[in-house]
Amino acid sequence: MNDMDRLLRNDARIEVADDGFTTRVMGTLPGARVRSERSWLKPVLVMGSAALGSGLAVALSPVGSALLSGFQDLMYLRTGSQPAIAGLAICGALLVSAIVLAFEE
Predict the structure, then answer these.
(1) Which residues, including other chains, have CB under 8 Å from residue 60's CB and lie 6 or more apart?
(2) Angle at 89 between CA 49 and CA 97, to 5 degrees
(3) Domain range for residue 93?
(4) Which of 17, 41, 50, 57 has the smallest set of CB atoms within 10 Å of its CB?
(5) Whether residue 87 has pLDDT greater than 60
(6) What is the pLDDT of residues 39-76, one digit of tens each?
(7) Residue 39 to residue 22: CA distance in whole angstroms
């Protein structure tokens, strides 16, 4: 580390007294309060999506290795069989979870 780096790092550590200006500005920004009021929303959405997906997967999944045949049914566009519906449910739950994670900050 050279002298210029050391000077810049030391200068960055010094706090500037702004008499609460930064706090007032951050308090008036529209997104500041919304994020703090809804901090519980993202975990609830993610957990809810995961619970819904797990419930659908358990309720609609067939016994045994029929799930693989369900994906084969989907490949041949036979969507009415129970294994195909289970495969669609699992894929849909994963899609919903991905959408929630992608669009929620």
Answers:
(1) 82, 85, 86, 89
(2) 25
(3) 3-103
(4) 17
(5) yes
(6) 777 778 777 877 787 777 767 766 666 767 787 887 88
(7) 22
Size of the chain in residues:
105
Angstrom distance (rounded) from CA 91 to CA 67: 12
103, 84 contact by CB (below 8 A): no
**How many domains does the chain fold into?**
1
- How far apart, in whole angstroms, are the C-alpha atoms of residue 83 and residue 70? 4
What proportion of the chain, given as a percentage, has pLDDT over 70? Answer: 83
Give the per-residue pLDDT at 91: 81
Residue 62 Rama label (left phi>0; alpha psi -120 to 50; beta): beta
Question: What contacts 79, CB < 8 A, 6 or more positions away?
Answer: 73, 85, 88
Using CA atoms, how far apart are residues 1 and 10, in angstroms rounded to an integer?
13
